[in-house]
Amino acid sequence: MPASSTNDPVFAAVDLGATSGRVITGRVGPETLVLNEVHRFTNTPVELPDGLHWDVLSLYQGILDGLRSAARLGPVASVGVDTWAVDYGLLDSDGSLLGLPFHYRDARNAPAADEVLGRFGAEELYGANGLQHLPFNTLFQLAAHRSSAQWPTARTLLLIPDLLVYWLTGSLGAEETNASTTGLLDACTGRWSDTLIERLGLERSLFPALRRPGERAGVLLPHVASYTGLPPDTPVTVVASHDTASAVVAVPATEPGFAYVSCGTWSLAGLELEAPVLSEESRAANFTNERGVDGTVRYLRNIMGMWLLEECRRAWERDGAPTDLSGLLADAARSRPFAAVIDPDDPVFLAPGDMPSRIDAALSRTGQPAPAGRGGYVRCVLESLALAHRRTLREAASLAGQEIRRVHLVGGGSRNELLCQWTADATGLPVTAGPAEATALGNVLLQARARGLVGGLADVRGLVARTQGLRHYTPQGDSAAWDRAADRLSVVV
């Protein structure tokens, strides 16, 4: 990787995930792209009497502390914010937050989703918003929220990254890639759907004007600048605030015919298209059409992802068992192949809890034995994820009429060599792994593009491919064994 120049502009990426947040600085030059994590903080949900919430005030303080650390290292040209999707805060007429935002894993969502689908019908809803049915999509959460005492005083809805940008700048807006996960955007026009909003009994005034990545949200409020040490005129740039959308920006694809798997807590597997796929077959296969950068569509399906493994590790840690990941992966590599497979998207795996026991119960229901030792559980999870990647990408290609020639696996899961190799083996396609920090890179690069330092998506991705350490995996092993395992999983599903 070429060394960066100290004259290259530095951008601060606020990147919040489901378990931690980071502030990362990125230095961007003609042939350089270097990240530096300057602050990390935990993201621990809080269980209150009314349900599971995000501790968004703690997250905001972590952001401020991270920006202060960034300021101590030198000039910062811009700040951008990305987080997970679907969750939101409500503001009153004074712009004050009405309670801690609910967590998408809160139990209130499933009954509300059933109620909304009973009124609309799944086919009509998909034809309008093109979204995969997930019980925590924002429109379902809003249906649950309407019965609260907060609701009558709510005047503005801000998704989590938009809320944080508002606290940094005082500027209201709704970034379009994240807004597309609400279920309230028209899948074809990419604008708020007045029809859906009205039929759900919501006030149109709740939803701010849409913003596109690259726009300037504003500059830091005086008290934010004072605390962080950043200049008061430091701009906050709108990036692809849905973390997956930023990650897809940084997919290092230099040829057509690529698919991506953005793998972290969730695995988001799919294609980048020019238009949504709204067929009944697509709805039945539970694919989503979310907005990407430059008018693209992220046609994908959510898969439960590394959440399964991390919840297993948390359960073992509570029991005092070793949870070192390298040791667990070594045990998994030695475990018997295809001893057991699960459907990662079984709803029983969604909530936090004792994941090994849930896996045991799922295997018992399908007549399969419990894994042998912790390595067996890890192998079960990773092989099942690889099979889910295979199934999802093959279905996406068929439904969209596309041919896949290579899979790009980005995000934290790209560090997991077993998952990368088994995804190549299961799909029968070459896999390029990395960058692991795709979301932060996408965030930084969109800020840099707003400054005119890089061009279109092809230029952005070319810079990532030239500057980031990537690993390549080719299909190996017994493809027939993966076919047999896929047949077993189809029976399980």
Can you give a write-up of this model?
The protein has 493 residues and is α+β, with helices and mostly antiparallel strands. The protein has 2 domains: 10-237, Nucleotidyltransferase, domain 5, CATH 3.30.420; 251-434 and 455-493, ATPase, nucleotide binding domain (Nucleotidyltransferase, domain 5). Helices cover 40% and strands 19% of the residues. The chain is built from 18 helices and 19 strands. The strands form 6 sheets. Strands 15-16-14-13-17-18-19 form a 7-stranded mixed beta sheet, sandwiched between helices. Strands 3-2-1-6 form a 4-stranded mixed beta sheet, with helices on both faces. A hairpin with a 2-residue loop joins β2 (20-29) and β3 (32-42). The radius of gyration is 22 Å and the shape is globular. The model has no long low-confidence stretch (mean pLDDT 96).
Structural class: alpha+beta
The first-level CATH class name of the largest domain: Alpha Beta
Mean pLDDT: 96
Amino-to-carboxy terminus distance: 44 Å
Low-confidence stretches: none
Read across the widest sheet, the strand sequence of neighbours is: 15-16-14-13-17-18-19
Question: Quick summary of this structure?
Answer:
The chain is of the alpha+beta class and 493 residues long. Helices cover 40% and strands 19% of the residues.
